[in-house]
Predict the 3D structure of the following.
Amino acid sequence: MAHSYPGGWYDQTLPDNQPVSQPVTDALAAKSAASAARPPRRWRKPGMKAVTITVCVLILIVASVYAFSDRSNLGRLPAASVPTAEPDNSYAEDFRQFFENYYSTSGAGSSQRSGSQMQRRAGDPDVTVELVSAAERPELSLGEIYDAGIRSIIGIKTGSAERIGYSWGSGIILTEDGYILTNQHIVEGAEIALVLLPDGRELESELVGEDIQTDLAVLKVNARGLTPVEFGDSAALHVGDRVAAIGNPLGTQFSGTLTDGIVSGFRQDVTINGRTMTLLQTNAAINEGSSGGPLYNMYGQVVGITNMKMVNFYSATPIEGMGFAIPSTVIKTVADQLIAGGKISGRPMLGLSLGAIPAEAAEHYSLPEGLYVHSVFRGGDAMEKGIRAGDIVTHIDGKAVTSTSEVLEMRNALEVGDTMVLTVWRNGEELEIPVVLRDQNQIEDKAS
């Protein structure tokens, strides 16, 4: 996963930050020596001494953690945030004010992502991702998977013309002549992306195409004789199947790290930055810098591209054993289109950002069950039909909706040009509004 530092390319590595306990030890030693020179103090109450010592130790621990923790502006990867405590949902007079606060503190709202600023180049329509069956193949050991796979994994440093290396990630080699697959969030906003090949060469890449919705990007470097990966079919996986991930966590010092685990689940409703994604869940360790790297089945085939891990929204603490990867079935569909035309066409969009309504808020404000309209996007038919932020969508095509996954399932069954009839609640009145689905490329990112 991309890992950013404000002071330049990896000028703060883990070993340099570890020896931080000595100043505290010296201070305690000096205090102990001074205390030994004084006569013992009498305590009026037997338990008072123990309480005072405990409080002092706690204060010292908190102060030490604050004084020696790394408080630099670390860039964080797309990570699915799971609130483990209630956000500050004190009820405002108007429910719209409440939802503005709710979405900003709970992570439930939509956060727009930006595209790359890299130089672009046309792709080759003849280059496609092929999913190969593993039937009749023997399983490989982790060592065999690593030995074969390490030759197809690259590192990526991104930045601007002024400073290279503010972000770090992984990628995989698609073709022997230099097509590279990685996560879109790694190149997001970047002007330059340098690819570190397995043979040690460092080459500047060009952007063939990117897709924010699925978090995938295709790059191209001018090289020959590279070792491409082989893709397997993620649809053939089952919960409990063993998998292995290879990536570059925390930069070059730990590049080529292998972790293993199992397929923990198949998720169609993982929401991050306002986008709901279909992902493989795994307990294989995935750390910052590893995103963009491959997830292998036990036949040495890539069945996913790792892209995020679960994070506690309030403490920003990673939740171990909950990593995610983009399945190879999604990769094939998206990568083939990106290489052929640089973008995804034909994806129907409503042009709305919808969010769930907490039951307590619905009860407090006497709101109907449904989905809150957080944003309306320019270029969409929903804006032209008058749908506005603060509306509540209660039904679509006559079916009650209370989760974004329900809406996505309904929308994905349709095509550009089809119509979805939204039942919208506004100030106690219900409106029936037909909305024509438009191509995502017609809809602007900026919301009203």
Q: What stands out?
A: The longest helix spans residues 48-68. Confidence is low (pLDDT under 50) at residues 1-44, 61-77, 81-87, 105-111. The two ends are 31 Å apart (CA to CA). The first strand starts at residue 153 and ends at 159.
